[in-house]
UniProtKB/TrEMBL annotation:
SMART domains: UDG, UreE_C. It catalyses: Hydrolyzes single-stranded DNA or mismatched double-stranded DNA and polynucleotides, releasing free uracil. It comes from the Bacteria. GO terms for molecular function: uracil DNA N-glycosylase activity. The lineage of its organism: Bacteria, Pseudomonadati, Bacteroidota, Flavobacteriia, Flavobacteriales. This is Uracil-DNA glycosylase. It is an enzyme of class 3 (hydrolase). Excises uracil residues from the DNA which can arise as a result of misincorporation of dUMP residues by DNA polymerase or due to deamination of cytosine. One of its GO terms (biological process) is base-excision repair, AP site formation via deaminated base removal. Pfam families: UDG.
Length: 222
């Protein structure tokens, strides 16, 4: 598996890449990509790390699984490629941003513009088989991404963690809440959002208020 990953992450994760579980995971992923259609493209599996070096990181936004529809996943959580219709969760994210900080709803669902400002758009599982949600869970990705969250907590200061939904909230135990800001709410998926657990969380203005308070440049969420 060819890894496109920024040097700052490569050195921090080098030990992890050598562990037996990661070698087994790599073998599994290679086999899946050879035998089935999988997403994202191989070169984009580590896009979150490639586009947001750890020395620039300000926000971690945790998703669960890549999108499993054709052409959607681009290696960044909640993000889709240019020209792809916005999935329901992303629609609700953009609606909340519109409400929270009064910016217009964007045309593009590609969140690279956030990643390049220091938002680590991390999925707990980095790959998926086409049209089969959750098909690459419990193969080692979660061990890897839990380690990533812990490394960010240990090695960085004043990071905002956005944890949406029950799955993401459980990751709070990996984070030193004395030195970071953890914001939790319901998931932006319609199921949760329509029950009143998402809209009005004001996470985007809160994240920027915290970043300002620790002397960091805010994120332009447009």
């Amino acid at each position: 598996m060819e890894v496109h990953i920024s040097p700052s992450w490569k050195s921090l994760l080098s030990e992890e890449f050598e562990k037996p579980y990661f070698k087994s995971l790599t073998d599994f992923v290679k086999k899946e990509y050879k035998e089935h259609t999988c997403y994202p493209k191989g070169k984009d599996i580590f896009a979150a790390f490639d586009q947001c070096p750890i020395d620039k990181l300000k926000v971690v936004l945790l998703g669960q699984d890549p999108y499993h529809g054709e052409g959607q996943a681009n290696g960044l959580s909640f993000s889709v490629n240019e020209g792809i219709a916005h999935p329901p969760s992303l629609v609700n994210i953009f609606k909340e941003i519109q409400e929270d900080i009064n910016v217009p709803y964007p045309e593009s669902g590609n969140l690279s513009r956030w990643a390049q400002q220091g938002v680590l758009l991390l999925n707990a599982t980095l790959t998926v088989r086409a049209n089969q949600a959750g098909s690459h869970q419990h193969q080692g990705w979660e061990t890897f991404t839990d380690t990533v969250i812990k490394l960010v907590s240990d090695n960085c200061q004043g990071v905002v963690f956005l944890l949406w939904g029950g799955f993401a909230k459980k990751k709070t135990s990996l984070i030193d809440t004395k030195k970071h800001c953890v914001l939790t709410s319901g998931h932006p998926s319609p199921l949760s959002a329509n029950r009143g657990y998402w809209f009005g969380n004001k996470h985007f203005s809160q994240a920027n208020a915290y970043l300002s308070s620790v002397g960091k440049e805010i994120i332009d969420w447009k």
